């Protein structure tokens, strides 16, 4: 009998005898019950589910001005957004080995655009984002990240998430022209109105309305890539309308087909940040709170996404723990910092990664595929910059709803000491147009109500400290410190 005949053949895993290649061993494809085909398919699914951020992030950041009236260039923002997404997602695949993709976070970019930038220069604001990423990495290195997360009650964390969802929904309504600010000359206490004059007028607003209905209909039908499909369809509709009708203004972007849809990426924003310049503009305490707000805006959302995707991908052990989570958290911290370095706002884990998991992805190989597709998108900037906000902002309403639907059920409404703070956090963000205010008021209310209920021992020391900082922050004007 020959040696070949007696040798033990490799176990035929999901990919058969050939499933022991170096790539398979590194990514543990067979070990996790996946195949190369599933990983590739999952990588494509995740990319198309989250590719809308290539359009939305430049619209949100590009519509804001810093304290000097400067605005970021749309084409450069597309490059920055895609670059940070490609870099972070590829890194997650190689180091974290999980099917989680990353890109500029919705919610965090609103903090940067509407709270940081108006009080400093854009480089100052991006420097604070970079510092938040450094803090995340330090928390991971010292093992404090999970302990910090556990200091904030689940219900309050969910309330903060919902508040961010409401906030980005309001931004979508305003940026589309569906809702507008009533000018002070009107002498009314009502701050907002429907449309530009109390009515819905104009083709751009119609594009937004139809886009919202289409997006929600596709979500109800559970169509993969619903948000991206809606953006593409409504951009085409907007192009047709713009070609046949006299449209006074689409706002930031006029939907016209570019002369050349492919171009070289513009890296003009890369490295345009000032680490500590913002503190000289707003003061040390306010600056620290701004960094803290950026940190919180992506901190808990990323942790929830990581655990949620890990659970759905069956990556948890028998005790419900995520093996190797520190590597994943470290990459997440690097991603936040990379967002500041590229001026694309903090980059964080995207829950749309579940689209890839649904296609069978179980390893970082899927993230490599997603990252590679983002890299290709670097050369398609003209296509992204032709999308009008009216075609893209329906995505903000959809994402806001999905955040609400995924979080509201986890709030313990029977415990008023945490339900009321969660409620205050979620409503104060849109009503004060500030995520910082929502977090601060929520934290203070939680501490005060637990003390009032005689449950002081149930308030973590970290919550006392942060609440005290926020109290001092709100008292600064009265104390003459601003």
UniProtKB/TrEMBL annotation:
<feature type="transmembrane region" description="Helical">
    <location>
        <begin position="227"/>
        <end position="245"/>
    </location>
</feature>
<protein>
    <submittedName>
        <fullName>MFS transporter</fullName>
    </submittedName>
</protein>
<feature type="transmembrane region" description="Helical">
    <location>
        <begin position="125"/>
        <end position="144"/>
    </location>
</feature>
<keyword id="KW-0472">Membrane</keyword>
<dbReference type="GO" id="GO:0005886">
    <property type="term" value="C:plasma membrane"/>
</dbReference>
<dbReference type="InterPro" id="IPR006043">
    <property type="entry name" value="NCS2"/>
</dbReference>
<feature type="transmembrane region" description="Helical">
    <location>
        <begin position="365"/>
        <end position="385"/>
    </location>
</feature>
<keyword id="KW-0813">Transport</keyword>
<dbReference type="InterPro" id="IPR045018">
    <property type="entry name" value="Azg-like"/>
</dbReference>
<feature type="transmembrane region" description="Helical">
    <location>
        <begin position="42"/>
        <end position="61"/>
    </location>
</feature>
<dbReference type="GO" id="GO:0012505">
    <property type="term" value="C:endomembrane system"/>
</dbReference>
<dbReference type="GO" id="GO:0005345">
    <property type="term" value="F:purine nucleobase transmembrane transporter activity"/>
</dbReference>
<feature type="transmembrane region" description="Helical">
    <location>
        <begin position="82"/>
        <end position="105"/>
    </location>
</feature>
<keyword id="KW-0812">Transmembrane</keyword>
<feature type="transmembrane region" description="Helical">
    <location>
        <begin position="420"/>
        <end position="449"/>
    </location>
</feature>
<feature type="transmembrane region" description="Helical">
    <location>
        <begin position="156"/>
        <end position="174"/>
    </location>
</feature>
<keyword id="KW-1133">Transmembrane helix</keyword>
<feature type="transmembrane region" description="Helical">
    <location>
        <begin position="461"/>
        <end position="481"/>
    </location>
</feature>
<feature type="transmembrane region" description="Helical">
    <location>
        <begin position="202"/>
        <end position="220"/>
    </location>
</feature>
<comment type="similarity">
    <text>Belongs to the nucleobase:cation symporter-2 (NCS2) (TC 2.A.40) family. Azg-like subfamily.</text>
</comment>
<feature type="compositionally biased region" description="Low complexity">
    <location>
        <begin position="1"/>
        <end position="10"/>
    </location>
</feature>
<feature type="transmembrane region" description="Helical">
    <location>
        <begin position="282"/>
        <end position="307"/>
    </location>
</feature>
<feature type="region of interest" description="Disordered">
    <location>
        <begin position="1"/>
        <end position="22"/>
    </location>
</feature>
<dbReference type="Pfam" id="PF00860">
    <property type="entry name" value="Xan_ur_permease"/>
</dbReference>
């Amino acid at each position: 009998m020959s040696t070949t005949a007696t040798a033990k053949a490799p176990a035929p895993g999901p990919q058969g005898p050939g499933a022991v290649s170096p790539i398979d061993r590194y990514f543990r494809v067979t070990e996790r019950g996946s195949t190369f085909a599933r990983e590739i398919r999952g990588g494509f699914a995740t990319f198309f589910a989250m590719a809308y951020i290539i359009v939305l992030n430049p619209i949100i950041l590009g519509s804001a001005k810093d304290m000097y009236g400067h605005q970021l260039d749309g084409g450069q923002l597309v490059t920055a957004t895609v670059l940070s997404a490609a870099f972070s997602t590829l890194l997650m695949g190689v180091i974290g080995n999980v099917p989680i993709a990353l890109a500029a976070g919705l919610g965090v970019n609103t903090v940067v655009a509407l709270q940081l930038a108006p009080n400093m220069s854009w480089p100052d604001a991006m420097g604070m984002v970079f510092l938040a990423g450094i803090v995340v990495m330090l928390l991971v290195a010292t093992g404090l990240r999970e302990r910090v997360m556990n200091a904030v009650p689940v219900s309050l964390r969910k309330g903060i998430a919902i508040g961010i969802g409401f906030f980005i929904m309001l931004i979508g309504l305003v940026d589309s022209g569906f809702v507008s600010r009533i000018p002070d000359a009107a002498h009314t206490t009502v701050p907002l109105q429907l449309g530009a004059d109390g009515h819905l007028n104009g083709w751009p607003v119609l594009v937004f309305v139809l886009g919202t209905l289409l997006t929600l209909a596709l979500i109800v039908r559970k169509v993969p890539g619903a948000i991206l499909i809606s953006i593409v369809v409504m951009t085409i509709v907007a192009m047709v309308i713009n070609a046949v009708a006299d449209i006074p203004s689409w706002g930031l972007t006029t939907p016209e087909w570019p002369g050349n849809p492919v171009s070289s990426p513009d890296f003009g924003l890369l490295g345009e940040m000032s680490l500590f310049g913002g503190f000289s503009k707003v003061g040390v305490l306010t600056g620290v709170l701004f960094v803290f707000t950026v940190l919180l805006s992506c901190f808990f959302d990323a942790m929830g996404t990581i655990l949620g995707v890990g659970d759905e991908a069956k990556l948890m052990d028998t005790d419900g723990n995520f093996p190797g989570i520190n590597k994943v958290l470290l990459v997440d911290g690097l991603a936040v910092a990379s967002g500041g370095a590229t001026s694309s706002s903090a980059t964080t884990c995207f829950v749309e990664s579940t689209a890839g998991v649904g296609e069978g992805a179980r390893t970082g190989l899927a993230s490599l595929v997603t990252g590679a597709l983002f890299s290709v998108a670097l050369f398609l900037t003209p296509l992204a910059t032709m999308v009008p906000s009216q075609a893209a902002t329906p995505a903000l309403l959809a994402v806001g709803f999905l955040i609400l639907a995924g979080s509201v059920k986890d709030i313990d409404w029977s415990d008023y000491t945490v339900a009321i703070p969660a409620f205050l956090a979620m409503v104060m963000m849109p009503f004060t147009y500030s995520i910082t205010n929502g977090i601060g008021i929520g934290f203070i209310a939680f501490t005060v109500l637990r003390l009032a209920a005689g449950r002081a021992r149930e308030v973590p020391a970290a919550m006392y400290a942060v609440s005290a900082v926020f109290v001092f922050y709100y008292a600064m004007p009265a104390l003459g410190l601003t």
